[in-house]
Amino acid sequence: MEAKGFRKAGHSPSLLSAFLYFDVSFMIWVLCGALSLYITKDFGLSDTQKATMVAIPILGGSVFRIPMGILADRIGCKKAGLTGMGLTLIPLVWGWLGGTSLQQIHMIGFLLGFAGASFAVSLSLASRWYPPQYQGLAMGIAGAGNSGTALATFFGPQIAQVYGWHNVFGLAMIPLILVMIVYAILVKDAPNAPAPKPLKDYLSVFKHADTWWFSMFYAITFGGFVGFANYASIFFYDVYGDNGHPGGLTKVQVGYLVTITVIAGSFFRPLGGWIADKIGGMRLLVILYSVVSVCAFAIATMPSSFLVMLLYTSVMMACLGMGNGSVFQIIPQRFSSEIGVITGIVGAAGGLGGYLLPTYILGPLKQSTGSQVTGFLVVGSIVLLTTLIFYAVTRSWRKSWAKAESGVNF
């Protein structure tokens, strides 16, 4: 009965399209990370340069998410989505036919941020079609487009091994164009979408402290997910690869491990939203942040078996994915009329977290210490502190806007 009620509550073709748009865009957004072992070999990069290279697309996504969120509110999610996909073709063509210098790779990576900005549009599209009691599940289904990461990490290294990494960018245009066609045919803008407002009205959400709290908490969950997803190939190959360990993992085998890890994070996102609908996003997030912190400390032990490490990283990514769904179970209840721009702002913060993780923590600490251990000790400590802050902040939310009489389980 509940599944039937969910289907009747919204517009399934638009929800499917939101998922497909996010899925193919996420696949494209993380191409630099998926192909990092091949790209970095061509340019002979240091540990810090490798981390920066895979993080620049995340920074681009962070920058473009706010304008894409505003665009979704002003012209509708259908037109905004088609615009985003059209812009995504630019770096794909450049990566296919160019990308012959590190500077070009950085520019291509930054423009791949147009794909990362799909988040602000696809989640707005899903949210507007569904009532409060189904927000967690609807946003989780659309957000499961994170699974595009798995497509990139699984197929990208195999194609690069045979045809070269440049051709991976060219081939990625095919699914993008197919999704553009499906999106143009199936998507309908929700009838309850708010009327366009002046730009200053959209940006007024920055005045609310809750905007900054949500941004911080999402920087941990989504930032952790996308930051590690892009860095994971470098991490696994550094610790278990055949470059430093006789009989170790090949680049393609590393791609398989990364795929398993990101699948855990991607497909648990809808589950996180669904559980948040049942027991409350705030209660669930305290548990998830705690587990992520424990997993980060466990990863820092650097087990000799890559299968044990795969277990640690997969559990961590699953909790981060569920955390993404949980955060967005709460946000629409607080900012229902500004969902496009708030999704862009919070999403931008998540992307920024994903940029900072490899660029300023994992990469530099690996280069300065010669080991991945310190980086994950720092990550575990940051998440532990965030858990305590989150618990304190949500107590004040329960006294202000997160009321039981709203009908939503917080």
Automatic annotation (TrEMBL):
Annotated GO MF terms: nitrate transmembrane transporter activity
Keyword terms: Membrane, Nitrate assimilation, Transmembrane, Transmembrane helix, Transport
Protein name: NarK/NasA family nitrate transporter
GO cellular component annotations of the record: plasma membrane
Record Pfam families: MFS_1
Keyword RNA-binding in annotation: no
GO biological process, one term: nitrate assimilation
InterPro entries (alphabetical): MFS, MFS_dom, MFS_trans_sf, NO3_transporter
Keyword Iron-sulfur: no
Alphabetized Gene3D superfamilies for the sequence: MFS general substrate transporter like domains
Protein family per UniProt: Belongs to the major facilitator superfamily. Nitrate/nitrite porter (TC 2.A.1.8) family.
CDD domains, sorted: MFS_NRT2_like
Transmembrane segments: 20-39, 80-99, 105-125, 137-156, 168-190, 211-234, 254-272, 284-300, 306-327, 339-361, 373-393
Subcellular locations according to the entry: Cell membrane
Membrane topology: Multi-pass membrane protein
Entry coiled-coil feature ranges: none
Domain Major facilitator superfamily (MFS) profile intervals: 13-398
Lineage of producing organism: Bacteria, Bacillati, Bacillota, Bacilli, Bacillales
